[in-house]
Amino acid sequence: MRAMTGGEAAVLSLHNLGIRTVFGLPGMQNDWLYNAFFDHREKFRIIHTRHEQGAAYMGLGHALVSDLPTVFNVVPGPGVLNSTAAISTAYALNAKLMCLTGQINSTAIGKGWGELHEINDQLSILRSLSKWVATANTPSEIPILIGEAFHQMLSGRPRPVGLEIPMDVLASTAPADPQLKLRTPYEPPLDEEAIEEVAKVLGASVAPMIFVGSGAQGASTLVRELAEVLQAPVVAYRTGMGVVDARSYLSLHLPAAKELWGKTDVVLAIGTNMRIPAKKWIRTHRPDIIRIDVDPTTHRRFFTPKCEITARAEQALPLLLRRLEEYNAVRRPRETALMEVKAAWEARSAVLEPQLSYLKVIREEIGEHGIFVDELTQVGFASRIVYPVYSPRTYISTGYQGTLGYGFPTALGVKVAKPNVPVVSITGDGGFMFAVQELATAVQHKISLIVLLFNNNCFGNVRQMQVNDYGGRIIATDLRNPDFCRLSESFGAQAFRTDSPEGLRFALRRAISTTSVPTVIEVSVGDMPSIDQFR
């Protein structure tokens, strides 16, 4: 243990815990932190952004696609407030995201002196959006608290955490040990009696169904094995997409699964709220429901399950598969029947044009391992029920939070984490303008993201609701847009414009071959059919 500034204690602690990339925006309260980053600059990639929301969203994308703790840094007060939409989205998506923020001098906190960036009770704001928060009061505490933050992100249900460090603590010197060993992440003890009960119920089922969410993303192989043993279709929507390859007869989109709901006797929900079936479908038919989730508070959300297992899917499924060997009934293969359900859904969803044609081109051109980041657009909405996802963590969604404008900056973080595969960000003319300034960040840091900007010159989804649900009373949804291609080029990005799926194919091929700058492809579109008809 040696004497060091609080800034150096923070930087070396992050490095000790595996952090190599930090997204951030420097400012006065963080000067001693960035001074320490300078001293250890060969150990880190610092991606500085043009807005705090950009730093937080980039951290979110990096965390989601890597499944690793990711750190972003902002100044206190307005900097923290600017990042809160991203933190709330991280909370919804169970992301391992750490907000490392500065703070005014410790002697001034809570005094109301009008210090630069002072806000009342910043920690409570972070607490309302996070799993764990703390304030460091001495340099010696910093490694301990950073270690605890990582312990919290890696234990149980992952969610964002926050640590604030006052500027005088970052500047002061004291003995600190940044090489502290991380505590073993907490895992809930496996209840073998609960697993036995679940095995009996599943084993006796006639027509089971599996629903998966983000909590199943790390157990893809196990879920597929379980589905084959049970001959159970696997249903995914948004955060569960990719757990089972969409090309498998066992993989169903949500609307396709609705057709089987009335014939299903047992449902296994793995790492998912299962919100839509729980709130809507269950009114007409109530199968026995089993939950596997690391968070016990989810078990009785919406309904009381027949039985439950509190564990991560990776923990519970191996033992469940072993117990099923004793209890599993012999079932008739369902491949033919499930392929018929998939074909029927494909025929029904054919009305979603032109979204289907654009999504087909994207899927074909980005390849087996390409990553798709959705957005609050008609193409993005359609992707949630028709886009074929082949593997885990290759479809990134905003989940229930629905944060318009999240897609582009989040996709930048995805591309930083996965630089060697194509990453496509779907956006609209409304959402893109939330973070358009981060094109400068992408150019400066050579982040070769591909942005597909579907331009209908309006907030299309809201406008569609005004037309369909409010008698055409259109207000505050039409947009006056810039020339997106010229705007993108002025930042140093590559830009194309098209108005057809085949034009998109040509532009995508050009974009994928570019590895040093981002590409914006503007796609001119008109009104598109809504997916609401399939809810």
TrEMBL record:
Domain Thiamine pyrophosphate enzyme N-terminal TPP-binding: 4-122
Keyword hit for Transferase: yes
Domain Thiamine pyrophosphate enzyme TPP-binding: 383-523
InterPro entries named in the record: DHS-like_NAD/FAD-binding_dom, THDP-binding, Thiamin_PyroP_enz_cen_dom, Thiamin_PyroP_enz_TPP-bd_dom, TPP-bd_CS, TPP_enz, TPP_enzyme_TPP-bd
GO molecular function annotations of the record: acetolactate synthase activity; flavin adenine dinucleotide binding; magnesium ion binding; thiamine pyrophosphate binding
GO cellular component terms attached to this protein's record: acetolactate synthase complex
UniProt keyword annotations, A-Z: Plasmid, Thiamine pyrophosphate, Transferase
Superkingdom of origin: Bacteria
Domain named Thiamine pyrophosphate enzyme central: residues: 195-318
PROSITE patterns to which the protein is assigned, alphabetical: TPP_ENZYMES
Main enzyme class: transferase
EC annotation from Swiss-Prot or TrEMBL: 2.2.1.6
A Gene Ontology BP annotation from the UniProt entry: L-valine biosynthetic process
Assigned protein family: Belongs to the TPP enzyme family.
Protein name (Swiss-Prot/TrEMBL): Acetolactate synthase large subunit
Organism this protein belongs to: Cupriavidus taiwanensis
Source taxonomy: Bacteria, Pseudomonadati, Pseudomonadota, Betaproteobacteria, Burkholderiales
